Amino acid sequence: MKQFLASLLLILCLTGCGSTQKLDPKNPVTVTMWHNYGGDMQESMDYLIDKFNSTVGKEQGIVINVTAISSSSELNESLNMIANGDPGAPEMPDIFTGYPKIAVLFQEKGMLVNLDNYFTAEELSAYVDAFVEEGRLSDGGLYVFPLAKSTEILYLNQTLFDRFAAETGAKVEQLSTFEGLAELSRLYYGWSGGKQFYSADSWFNVAEVGMVQLGESLFDDAGMLSLNSDAYAHIFETIYCPSVEGGFAVYDGYSSDLSKTGDLVCSTGSSAGILFYGDTITYSDGTVEDVEYSILPYPVFEGGQTTALQRGGGLMVAKSDEKTECAASVFLKWLTASEQNMLFISSTGYLPVTKQAFEQDMAGHMESLDDARIRKMLTAVLSMYENYDLFTAPSFSTFDAISKSYEEDFKALLTEQRQLGAEALSVQDALTLIRK
User: Fold this and answer.
1) Which CATH number is 426's domain given?
2) Which of 297, 395, 322, 405 is nearest to 18 (CA)?
3) Which domain holds residue 223?
4) Distance between CA 155 and CA 197 in Å, rounded?
5) pLDDT tens profile 21-31
């Protein structure tokens, strides 16, 4: 039975390679790879590559050889040099990790494999649709294959919230909407004597996803910000008022920093940030308190659709010869299959990429986890998988610059107006200013 299953796996792995480019175990092809995974993820990747090379790779004639492991910034620098043809640029690897914005640079110059040529529609249907769609570029081709993803969730200090709720009647259900967060922030600010209740790691994400929740887009057809709608005006007011009044925190770091000191009750951020939330907080006077965190689905603007952002790196394959491309595709299929993929992300806050992982394997996987934080996060994300649409941000070349500029301008406006106190601009005047 085991031999039959192994043979079946090998047949499936070869789908799409073509009969003229048979892999030959007597003459193995070496596939070079760069990635940016460190710590536990590097250990898992090393283990999986060794396992592949000694099993499927050995039987098919494929050797995966990792020739560079570096940080995302260092990897991107090297990849940019290659894409731009800079003097002294290193040789392009056969497989490398990255985001769609990097893929655009290579795809425009015809340097990437369209993975639709090596995956059938049936094979692709096994993966979460939104995760696959993020890897498609302007020509519709699939150039970034999903490996480890994340979404955004609500982190809640349950200990602080319960204390607050016991005296005020606040309900956890109010945390399901941004309007509810705004209302509770005002209540908490008064109850606590001026402490802040909520913050977002990215106010740009709140606006972008909020617009999608309300059936619109933060961008127009030309890729420019579109801030003149009533939907955006509502999002802006919902955030602006409690930020200026003091209930929302505007911070130049990650919200987990404020959570560690008890200066926040809840925050929205990436599911991959779960490991930055511990089980204690340390107050400014040095007092340490044991606390418990709950993980809740991403909030929705009232009247909107349950939608959350998804993002994360993937794998790209360089154009070379058909045999190498075929070998790379065999490895991608094996690596992203549920069993291997769940092992790869098991000790992190990242999410698997197949429907089988979410719909069949996740429950058993969560039971085996030692880290209660990851278990809680996956429980919330599993609920979102069943009830939310996952939104993919656009990948046009100026997206990063526009989102960064918006974030900086928005936070500067909120900070300045809060400092003005009673003399702060009205919502309408502030909205006019941010729209300029």
Assistant:
1) 3.40.190.10
2) 322
3) 153-310+395-435
4) 12
5) 578 889 999 99
